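Run folding on both entries below.
>entry_1
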Amino acid sequence: MSEHTHRPVPVLEAVAGIVPPRVVSNEDLPAHWDTNDVWVRRRTGIGTRHWVDEGTSTGDLALAAAEAVLAKSPAGDVDAVVVATSTPDHPMPGMAPVLATRLGLGGVAAFDVSAVCTGFVYGLATASGMITAGIARRVLLVAADVYSTLISPDDRGAGVVFGDGAGAVVLRAGESGEAGEVLGFDLGSDGAGHDLITVPGGGARGRAEPGRYGPADCHFRMSGREVFQHAVTRMTESSLAALKNVGWTTSEIDRVVAHQANARILSLVGQRLSISDDKVLGNISRVGNTGAASIPLALADAVARDEIHAGEKVLLTAFGGGFTWGSATLVWPEIV
């Protein structure tokens, strides 16, 4: 590339979040789970979560979030759609082409990203790369999950944690130094932990080995205690790597928005980064763990509550099944 060639940079211009209307408090959880509000709050920090009603799918929430963010976004054509999810409407095809058509976006590039709870950060990196490479000028990124449809009715451990939701952002090509510029990333994975957050059945492995999996294997499974320490360690290390990539120190960070996995995980990550609790934003107490949607939902919530402001240095970090993890740095834009 010639030194005179202009390279666009990805700039965040809008964010929105959607949760289904049905609120499920800790008192509303199934009686056979033998739990109560104090027990759930002490272990997870969650008081309520939102679950979809029958007939509502991940794609429906993704559409609502996409429409909301496009309504907030300045006029302009979206020429790529990226969807991050691990609860797609169908194993095939991906959700993004269907979403693009439902939005009336015609023949734009559209595809899915599957990185479980790290999906939004991976999707953000993908969308940013498309802009930097000149492939797209404006990208719609939607992260959506409906774990309530994937969890076994008998799985109290996962059932109390997960909620449903969708979040969306629009990125555009901009100029270096603009507020909203997405500056850098750190991404990683370790497949040795693949079986600690998984849906073992329902895929090609099961079809290749008939009889290996039963109906129960099509439900989500997570080894919570083992995952806990991995999540804290990986998000901390990834955050430090992402900060190093852009020359920031932890003391310079104004806001941290981490994947809303568990309140205790969020607190420990903040402590290990030496970042005070008032800088760590989140909404897990109200919406639970919403998978890939958790970071954009938390960002949209922070905007609505006036907890994040233009010019602030923001760190995003996540950990999910795979294992996957990732962090991103950006300067927050002026968003109404």
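>entry_2
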Amino acid sequence: MTAPAPAEAPTGEIRLGLRVNLAQFSLLVAVNALVGGMLGQERTVLPLLADQTFHLSAYTAALTYIVAFGATKAVTNFFAGTLSDRYGRKPVLVAGWIVALPVPLLLIWAPSWGWVVFANVLLGVNQGLTWSTTVIMKIDLVGPARRGLAMGFNEAAGYGALAATAMATGAIAAHWGLRPEPFFLGIAYAALGLSLSALAVRETRDHARAEAALHPVPANPDHHGELTTGQIARTTSLTDKALSSASWAGMVNNLNDALAWGIFPLLFAAHGLSIGRIGLLAALYPAVWGIGQILTGWWSDRIGRKHLITAGMLLQGVAIALVAAGTAFPVWATAQVLLGAGTAMVYPTLLAVIGDVAHPAWRARAVGVYRLWRDGGFAVGALLAGTLADAYGLTTAIWTVAVLTAAAGVVVAVRMYETHPRT
């Protein structure tokens, strides 16, 4: 394969690279932190709201908000890539923030569980449009040489803010109650995210076009030039071993995240933990995940993608099994740290795989297809975990997901080829 273009190659007035685009890159990191915060406002409070306020006794019913969120976000991810190619990245980002504005208000005023489910449909649209677009825009700006590092910063910002907000809302709920005070943070995040996106963020689609003009012809002609959306979906989902393995691993990753979001707080509450301690555990996992991605994104640029993803999925499986086996706070805290570390190894690296393989001409749509599969894992995980928990108990549901997660690591080890151009 021909060597990739330099990280900061000039193309007319467009320059690719982290240093030359640092101001816009940093702004997009801040915007994605607000995106993560919108999700973090729910992580501690909503499972407890389902149990203590709406008195939903069936786990499957209690997790319907995650099903609604995951299914909507997955579909929106798919269209976000296509829309950002057709209309530009910035309009899609702004539209995502407009959809976010009523979400915290619906959660505050919801008179029935159906309102909470509808709020999560809107949240899924918000997350699909905004998070997908910030990923695409950062890939556009940095070029090929720093892709893993860029994804590390992007995901670290989003999940670091998610963790901080989960901890903050847990503390607020412990002091003032489950509603309305914890959701005031969401109101501030949505207003600030919309303002920054509309007034300060600049369009990056021309950066992708500039990279496409410099992009070498790959050895596999199926990866070059313009493809239809159907061809891109088939390549990303099935025919390319790296892209499809990444899609499968991403789906299982978010399947176990749905478990951590919806089932873990209920397990901890059943063992008598306070809301404050549940909030701490809910924050610990995404905090390690968020901070760790700065290192692991950079690391994948040095050692390659495949082995980091394999090890991360296996470590997640071990961590989830430890949650199932544990009965006390110290064991669960250790498991949350391990789960965060494993997820940090996987999350930015999977996105970097998509960026490595997909041609710039159709990369945004490939990201959309990958994120369709990945975030579909929320819906699959909520349905699977809820059904198993209702039939066999919380612990059986957790053990099952632990096995599935480890199996995904084995699939990557056997099927994925290394995608990083330096290796």
